[in-house]
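Dear V.,

Thank you for sending over the compound details. I've combined the ligand you provided, zinc ion, with the protein sequence from our construct and run the structure prediction for the complex. I'm sharing the raw inputs here so there's no ambiguity about protonation or stereochemistry in the SMILES, which I know was a concern on your side last time.
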Amino acid sequence: MATKIEKSDEEWRAILSREQFRVIREKGTERAGTGAYDKLYDEGVYHCAACNTPLYKSTTKFNSGCGWPAFFDALPGAVTRHVDNAWGMERIEIVCTACGGHLGHVFKGEKFDTPTDERHCVNSVSLTFTDTDGTVKPQ
Ligand SMILES: [Zn+2]
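Below is the predicted structure of the protein with zinc ion bound, written out as C-alpha cells.
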C-alpha cells in the first residue's frame, strides 16, 4: 500500500510547474483539450505527476471526447474519492491516495461503452505517462 506523502506548499512548488501546482495542490482544472495526454493511446502506465505513484493503466483509458484524459478504472487503491460540493454541485473528486494531489472527478452512468460505466476525468498535468519501455512522454 502506498505511503502517505506530505510536503509543504513550498516543497511542492519546488517540484511542480505553476500549472501543476494550481491543478494538483489548489484543485484547479486545466483548460479542456489542452492536455498532452488527452489523445494519447500508447501502451503504458500513468503516474501521479507529483509523487510518481502508478495510478492508471493505458488499457483503462478511453476516448470520452470531453477534452481531458478519461479512464474507466484506476489501479487498486491508487485513487481516493471525496464528495466535492464546490460550485453548488455534488461531484466526486479523485485524489492520489499517496500524496493527496488533486486528479479530477469521477462521473457515473454516462453510458460510455466501458466495463464500469464510470469516467475518471483526470487533468493531464496531474499525470506522467511512462510507456512499456519506461520512457516518459513529456507534457
Ligand atoms: Zn501522488
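A first observation: The beta strands are 44-48, 54-57, 61-62, 70-71, 79-84, 91-96, 102-108, 118-122, 127-131, 136-137.

Warm regards,
I. M.
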